[in-house]
Specification:
The structure is a single chain. The longest helix has 11 residues, at about 70-80. The model is unreliable at about 1-15 and about 25-35 (pLDDT under 50). This protein is about 20% helix and about 35% strand. Strands 4-1-5-6 form a four-stranded antiparallel beta sheet. Strands 2-3 form a two-stranded antiparallel ribbon. The chain has four helices and six strands.
């Protein structure tokens, strides 16, 4: 489960599954999974793609919403490579219960984006750790994604 990866970085509380429309995301942050693209260049391998969000008015992003303390946002920023690797975007999300809230997601810095990238098997496995909290459709799409290795 994804929460196992966060306890080192920040204190957090799992709120609910969430989604928003108007973007698509292949990301392990909000943490959403929608395998359209892995176009954020990985820092350890320039041929590997990490998850990203891009504008698409017809797509829906599923994710997992966490509440974290303000002081832990700085830790998460460093972990995600903000502002060099990612910028932050505020979005309106809808929870499973229909309520709407504002959330922050990380979006790849345009200078770190390149088409034609694929995730490594390890990175995809990392994303799949959160699949039990997402829809079956998202899980299936992610499991079918072709990896770099």
């Amino acid at each position: 489960m994804l929460k196992d990866n966060f306890h080192i970085i920040a204190s957090y509380k799992l709120v609910k599954n969430c989604y928003f429309k108007g973007h698509y995301q292949v990301t392990d942050n909000c943490r959403a999974l929608s395998p359209k693209k892995f176009n954020k260049v990985a820092s350890r391998n320039p041929n590997e793609g990490y998850a990203n969000i891009e504008k698409d008015d017809e797509s829906r992003v599923e994710g997992i919403l966490y509440t974290i303390r303000e002081l832990d946002i700085e830790k998460l920023d460093r972990y995600e490579g903000y502002p060099d690797h990612y910028t932050k975007l505020k979005v309106r999300i809808k929870l499973d219960n229909g309520k709407e809230e504002e959330a922050i997601v990380y979006v790849a810095n345009p200078k770190r984006v390149r088409e034609g990238l694929r995730p490594s098997r390890d990175y995809l496995h990392h994303l799949l750790k959160g699949c039990d909290l997402l829809s079956e459709e998202y899980r299936d799409k992610l499991r079918e994604w072709e990896t770099l290795d």
